[in-house]
UniProtKB/TrEMBL annotation:
Binding site for FMN: Q74, K143, H173, G230, R231
PROSITE patterns cross-referenced by the UniProt entry: UPF0034
Cofactors: FMN
Active site: C104
Family under the similarity heading: Belongs to the dus family.
Family annotation (InterPro entries): Aldolase_TIM, DUS-like_FMN-bd, DUS_fam, DusB-like, tRNA-dHydroUridine_Synthase_C, tRNA_hU_synthase_CS
Keywords, sorted A to Z: Flavoprotein, FMN, NADP, Nucleotide-binding, Oxidoreductase, RNA-binding, tRNA processing, tRNA-binding
Protein name per its UniProtKB record: tRNA-dihydrouridine synthase
Domain DUS-like FMN-binding, residue spans: 17-323
Record-linked Gene3D superfamilies: Aldolase class I, Putative flavin oxidoreducatase, domain 2
Lineage: Bacteria, Pseudomonadati, Bacteroidota, Sphingobacteriia, Sphingobacteriales
Enzyme Commission numbers on file: 1.3.1.-
Catalysed reactions listed for this entry: a 5,6-dihydrouridine in tRNA + NAD(+) = a uridine in tRNA + NADH + H(+); a 5,6-dihydrouridine in tRNA + NADP(+) = a uridine in tRNA + NADPH + H(+)
């Protein structure tokens, strides 16, 4: 049976979602993930206060493209009225849905009363969610964590109460805020929510899915409706293609060749420049090179070159050099070498 968000978003039998990641899941990165089969994507999270103040950085994050659909705009904030107003602004950008971030653990978000901080005040979280749901005709979804810390794992209550005020899907990262990104993600509570007969909305699991094997095993073990992948896709958008292939055939797809790595990296760079201009586009790509070429022995010299260059044509030349130097020596890497 197909997984649906609201009445109109059909995600197929078992969707793979790209997690919203600050400074990562911008349109250029989303483009290469879409090419590799991701079923649903989100913008980077956007400050509700920034949207209301008309801040340029926040407004730019509203950019979405037809080929990205279905796509959600994710917002965060600590003030209910600001969140309501920002939902209205997001609706005008015509996404397929609006997602609320109640999961971000970083200090400058959580310590300002936004993101995962709302896990300490479920009543306010519910009121905020209702305000957003009431402000838009679009489906509203939520991403959150298990709780604030080990003593307050309250995601069971969160799931029921947010469903009651109208959210259409819930993505759960299997860690508390206190864990940040350390330790192991615990998906057992996610499974318990999925088994709760009161819960009728799709439940997506997130956290630590970094291989084909893990995706297949956790799909069965934790009974989720789909999997959201974040960090494992950085520099490795092929993870979506490989997991889907495994689900469909039971066979592992070989990892990308050096040529493929170079071509996707080039595409990412070109899209980055198209979207943000030469200077910013080149600068923001620097964080991605090491991930695209992870596992290549003696690559440091090339990485240093790539991050040191400012001229797009020179960067493209170095990428061609990489193809020539390593293309024949190393054909494939292990699929799950993230």
């Amino acid at each position: 049976m197909a997984v649906k968000i609201g009445e109109h978003i059909d995600l197929g039998k078992f969707p793979l979602l790209l997690a919203p990641m600050e400074d990562v899941s911008d349109p250029p990165f989303r483009y290469v993930c879409k090419q590799n089969g991701v079923d649903m994507m989100y913008t980077e999270f956007i400050s509700s206060e920034g949207l209301i103040r008309d801040a340029a950085k926040s407004k730019q994050k509203l950019d979405i493209f037809e080929y990205e659909r279905p796509i959600g705009i994710q917002i965060f904030g600590s003030d209910i009225e600001s969140m309501r107003q920002s939902a209205e602004i997001c609706t005008l950008a015509h996404p397929d849905l609006i997602d609320i971030n109640y999961g971000c653990p970083v200090k400058n978000v959580a310590c300002r009363g936004a993101g995962a901080s709302l896990l300490q005040d479920i009543d306010k979280m519910v009121a905020m969610t209702k305000a957003v749901v009431d402000a838009t005709p679009l489906p509203v979804t939520v991403k959150t964590r298990l709780g604030w810390d080990d003593n307050t794992k309250n995601v069971y209550e969160v799931a029921e109460r947010l469903q009651d005020v109208g959210i259409k899907a819930l993505s759960i990262h299997g860690r508390t805020r206190a864990q940040m990104y350390k330790g192991q993600a615990d998906w057992s509570m996610i499974r318990d929510i999925k088994r709760n007969p009161r819960i009728q909305i799709p439940i997506f699991g997130n956290g630590d899915v970094d291989s084909v094997e893990k995706a297949a095993a956790w799909r069965m073990e934790y009974e989720v409706d789909g999997i959201m992948i974040g960090r494992a896709s950085i520099g490795y958008p092929w993870i979506f293609r490989e997991i889907k292939h495994f689900f469909e055939t039971g066979e592992r797809l070989e990892g990308p060749t050096i040529d493929e790595r170079v071509e996707v990296c080039k595409t990412h760079l070109i899209k980055s420049i198209e979207w943000k201009g030469d200077k910013t586009g080149v600068f923001e790509m620097r964080r991605h090179y090491a991930n695209y070429f992870k596992g290549i022995p003696n690559f440091k010299e090339y990485r240093t070159k790539l991050v040191g260059l400012g001229d797009p044509s020179e960067i493209l030349e170095v990428l061609e050099e990489i193809k020539e130097k390593f293309g024949e020596d190393i054909v494939h890497f292990p699929v799950n070498d993230f």
